[in-house]
Amino acid sequence: MSKRSCGELRATDAGSRAEINGWVNRRRDHGGLVFIDLRDHTGITQVVFHPESAAFATAETLRHEDVVRVSGTVRSRPAGTENAKLLTGAVELVADDLFIYSRALVPPFPIAGDEEIDEALRMQYRYLDLRRPRMQRNMRLRHRIVKAIRDFFDRRGFVEIETPMLIKSTPEGARDYLVPSRLHHGAFYALPQSPQVLKQLLMIAGFGKYMQIARCMRDEDLRADRQPEFTQVDLEMSFVTQDDVLEVMEACMLHVWEDALGLVLPQPFPRFRHEDVLARYGTDKPDLRFGLELSDLSSIFLTSDFKIFREQAETQSGAIIGLRYPGGAALSRRDFDALTERAKCEGAHGLVWIALDADDGIRSPVGKFLSQETIAEIRARLEAQTGDAVLLFAGERNATLLVAGKMRNNVADRCALRDEAQFRFAWVTDFPLFEPDPQSGKPMPAHHPFTAPLDDQWDLLNTDPLAMRAQHYDLVLNGWELGSGSIRIHKPDFQKKIFAMLGMTEEQIEERFGFFLRALDYGAPPHGGIALGIDRIAMIAAGENDLREVTAFPKNQAARDMMMDAPSSIPPELLKELALAVTPPKSR
Q1: Is this structure's pTM higher than 0.90?
Q2: How far apart are CA 407 and CA 399, in angstroms?
């Protein structure tokens, strides 16, 4: 008798003896026969128990999710009872022996299907949720993605090197998770937000090509595409330009999609400069599965009778941004009022709409201020057709572009313009090196302080740092940012200039980064790299919209593990050993 998996048996196995193990997916009593669908990670096999079988009485007691071993004879299903939806659907196992490994309580939710289930319940019983077909598919897809990534970089000559989880706290853009030291009271390790400095040290160490499937932690507010602990494919290369890094990562994604999903993606991926992608899409992570590019219509309104728009167009920082709404002329006044409220929720002062009705007529609350020539120019700029609507946003240019970009996505959802079967990658480059701090207005790194500017822009550091552009790049997929990278600063004096510009004293620079600057003093090659979120890659590839659907044991939105009830309190004796005291939070 051969031991087989539940998804393995085929018509060619008819007449043979087999043993299978798994969970009871369903049980059915039909005319003196007991049928069960037995499930494991490979699939489902139908098992039939006849009354004359010694196992029949026990089979009648089986419940969903009982774990059993069944042995018997494989036979072809009677004509007309085959199940084309199952790979094993041509056969069934006629059981003559049944052994129950363990009994199961009634599950708190159905395991067999893909029904929508309360998320809190799913998180509390995650081990049951992971048995469900959807989660089995997602986690196995994630495995194939990670394997494809490792295979690709191995063939390209990269060395996978693990970096430590207990490191020194360095600024990475979010709060660190801290670990108190038992041996050094009052001192703390930090859990890595990324292996950033460590992978640069590996380049100084001469490894040339490093990669790692790295675990990272960031103490920040959670959302659908963010978990406190996450996994990224992390890489660094020596003696490279930005184009070299982009070529390697693009080739990796092409390989992953073909190997793990069986899809051949169009190439090369389009590239956009940061300021250009904002002007066209209102975001630096555009969804390219649909068009609806934005257009700056300010020049049209410089001579307009519409005073509010004319005044905005005349200001140096103001702009009027237009967006086409396909088929929007069919909307009612109430629909446009709802759109206006949505725009206000996204940060707009308001919204002006123009419905392009038949016979070149228009409907608009400001129609009397718009000449036929103005309407014609707007239509031409936005390539709007009769039956469409035009949405106009006015205000400070950058803020207005961001609002229009969010409304572009909203319109795409309303018009069902996203093709879920498409995967549209894009590169965004030439980001600002610095951005003003919201509180002080002082320049702060837009990425991290190890990012190099364009080669000819170091002189701007002392005169106009906000005008500097970085050798920084993002990879975007279907409107999600997969990850970021940059060419690094490899000269110690330049790196110290950045630290000093950020307001660090000599003592602070030495305390936080002395080890790193000393490493740069010993001959650092030019180097650069990138890190992409594996969780996000798996999420999009699986057609999901939340990282929890591709993470085995995730946290909820309050950063709690509802299954293990973590974080939890620590026994007093352990706190004493660590020389820590817990004080109650201040009342608000």
Answers
A1: yes
A2: 13
Distance of alpha carbon 386 from alpha carbon 361, whole angstroms = 9
CB 478 within 8 A of CB 424: yes
> What would the pLDDT profile of 152-163 be if each residue is shown by its tens digit?
999 999 999 999
Instruction: Let me know: does 489 contact 498? Beta carbons within 8 Å.
Output: yes
Place of tokens 């790979």: 87
Cα radius of gyration rounded to whole Å, the chain? 30
CA atoms within 13 Å, Cβ hemisphere of 447: 27
Closest CA to 260 of 363, 144, 405: 144
How far is CA 228 from each of CA 57, 176, 192, 420, rounded to the nearest angstrom?
A: 50, 10, 11, 27
- For residue 71, give the 3-state DSSP assignment: strand
Q: Quick: pLDDT tens for 279-298.
A: 999 999 999 999 999 999 99
Task: Tell me 412's DSSP state.
Answer: H
Q: Count CB-CB contacts under 10 A for residue 153.
A: 22
Cβ burial, residue 546 (10 Å; 0-12/13-18/19+): middle
Q: What is the dihedral of CA 45, 48, 53, 56, to 10 degrees?
A: 100
